[in-house]
Amino acid sequence: MGDRKTRGIRLPLPTVSVRTRLITVITVVAALGMLSVGFSVYLEERQRVLAQVDDLITANLASARFLVERGEDDSGTWQTSADALESVVQRTAPDDNTGVLGIVDGAAALVPGVALDVDLQSAPGFVDYVVAEAASANPIMGTYSTDAVTWRYLAVPIIVGEADAAASSLFVIAYDIDAELAEINSAARVFLIASVITLIVIGAAAALVTTRLLRPLRQMRETAQRVSGQSMSERLPIVGRDDVSELAQTMNEMLDRLDEALESQRRLLSDVGHELKTPITIVRGHLEVVDADDPADVRETRDLVVDELERMARLVQDLASTAALHGPAPVRLVPTDAADLMRQIVRKAQGIEGADAAAGPFAEVVCPLDPARVTQALLQIAQNAVTHGGGRMLLSSRVRGGMLELSVRDFGPGVPDDLKPTVFERFHRGADAEHRAGSGLGLNIAQVIARAHGGTMQVVDAAGGGAEFVFAIPCELEAPALKIPPRPPLPPRPPEPATSLGGQ
């Protein structure tokens, strides 16, 4: 049982910071790049050196043939192959890291008169190996390799006549491959040391750059840790004009929106609590003092309680409508005939109890809007006209400045100038609200719908008294088709000139 529980527990993986991962990736990629370049160059240079050795060996073969063909004292002949071999060995000009040897009858017999870099007799088995390989009369090029040496050699049999055909005279020249490659090996070691130093510098530069670039991200994380529902005043410093600074600006804007949303939520909860407190207090107070033995008192209390509960129900319904307007897709825009929509709204407004709605001039346009939401907003305004404006109203629409303005004009006392900035706030019900029904959310709902369309909501003084509520939303009108005037008729063809058939 204990083992099963232990196997079910997953140990947390070690956390590796973004900075460490970036530095590691940059350093590893740089190391792989430098290693691949260095290895490729080394292989190319090594192949070049080996090809150069073979070219030098081929050149020595040509030189040996020339000397043998020239003969003794330029006579073109030699007395013996040993004499020819001696001449070739003595006149050979060896390069660095080379050795020359003359072999007669299977034994080392001749060496140049100058000291060479490579002593071919230092490898005990070399002479026997070459003699065994050069059994034919053709030159042999090969590689002799042991734990101690690696030589690239050329063995050329020297034959000057049929009489010396049986004589065994070999001219041998060899290059020390390890010594030839020592120069590029030394350069490779220098390259490795320089690469290590370069990688250290790259790692340090990556650490410095990533630290500066990721500092705003660290500040974002620390700020996000400090931000809470009680403290939304934290903001990120904006430094520079790069992607990170734009991200910091976006984060600050997001925090502003969150702060505004939280503050709006607090105000909403406070307003809802205040609005519900009054009817609850009224209901509770009357239920506590009702005389259960008095039927009249019971009926009166019941009517009052039902009235207060209906008011709370309207408040909850309006709050639900307001919450729906703050969702991810509050409106769905479709091309709509604005004039036809206004005619429907007028008929619906006439069905409101106490409403005397009349239709004004309508703009004959098609605009992208949400018909249901626009209807909801204008009926809320119409209900407000019934509650505060006496019920008589005029609904009209017009297009001005690229905006479709839908207006509801009432003929009541109007809205004082000092109340116009606050008339669209939640739960604003006017000075005589206690004598009138309503939750105080109607105009706020209309304003939210207008803003969801990208428009505005305002109240102005109507000409002749009363208030005019203007619901304005964008409306891009299509440009009218160009009318091309008809082509004018062609003028009549002039009469053809008379021609004379006879000559003059």
Quick synopsis:
With 504 residues, the protein is α+β, with helices and mostly antiparallel strands. It is built from ten helices and twelve strands.
What does this structure look like?
With 504 residues, the protein is of the alpha+beta class. It is built from 10 helices and 12 strands. The chain has helices spanning 2-8, 18-70, 81-91, 126-133, 177-226, 243-289, 295-325, 338-349, 371-389, 442-452, and strands spanning 98-104, 107-110, 140-145, 150-157, 169-176, 334-337, 356-359, 366-369, 392-400, 403-410, 456-461, 467-474. The chain has a 5-stranded antiparallel beta sheet, with helices on both faces. A 5-stranded mixed beta sheet has the order 7-9-10-12-11. Strands 6-8 form a two-stranded antiparallel ribbon. Strand 1 (98-104) and strand 2 form a beta hairpin. Helix 9 (371-389) runs antiparallel to helix 10 (442-452). The protein starts with a helix and ends in a 30-residue tail after the last strand. Mean pLDDT is 80; it is low at 478-485 and 497-504.
Descriptive labels:
504 residues; alpha+beta; five-stranded antiparallel sheet; 15% strand; disordered C terminus
**What does the main sheet amount to?**
5 strands, antiparallel
Enumerate how many helices there are, as a single number: 10
Q: Which structural category fits the helices and strands?
A: alpha+beta
Strand portion = 15-25%
Mean pLDDT: 80
Radius of gyration: 53 Å
DSSP strand count: 12
